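Table 4 source record.
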Amino acid sequence: MTFDLAMPLTLFFVTLVSLFLNQKTESKLKVTLDEKEFRTRDAVLLVAVMVVMISLIAFLRDIVAPLMILFMFSYSALLFMFTYVFTNRRWYLAIIPPIVFILSYVFLRDTSLWTLHLVNIYAVIFAILITLYIGSMFTWKSTLIFTALLTIVDIILVLITGTMIEAANAARGLSLPVMVTVPVIPLISMAEGIQFMSLGLGDFFFAGLVVTQSFKKYGKKFALLSAVSITVSFFIFEALLLTYRFAAFPGTLMIICGWLPLVAFKYLKKAPAS
């Protein structure tokens, strides 16, 4: 059987960093967001918005300018907002990270420095920032609804319609940091070179969200156990994909299969005996 250590460990690392930083930043972000919390309809609306955005990206894949502007604006706004909040609202400091990002993309996007290193670094940064920002608004109930809906949608968009794959290829064709790409370890040599594995920002956000919400619901021990279980589940699924040469598979399903049994066990353990 063929297996990979690099991507599961990357997922584990990013999830743990998101968990640690969430404890440090959530209070400030809640103040900035006026203590807003996602309700059921907000969770459903967010999934709907994500489906629309993915469909638009796939549909506009041949129109370069709108896609680039959309991503660059979103990433820059996220960098500005976080820097603005955590530098005590010093706008002249907050504009520096977006400017550095934009200049790096414009002048380095066709170099190996960007394609091999910077694009992954920025992808990891954005995955963590998205988790911290959006995750701070979730409750346990909205998390369960959101994860269930997003997993169903992901299965449809990846395995049935293929829209997710088209959207990812369109964004990746512009060298945008929409996913983390690492070489399979142990290395696998192919005719075209070393084999790589990619995982989208949405999947990193998904894992970070369920782990941070697990911490708030059941504590640190359960959150860490969730991170480990998710990593193991992802490792097993990825090994099957590599062994049987599947082209693509829903990352949310790979993640939730590691987390859901733990949550189910918690609920069953608390359920009163009949």
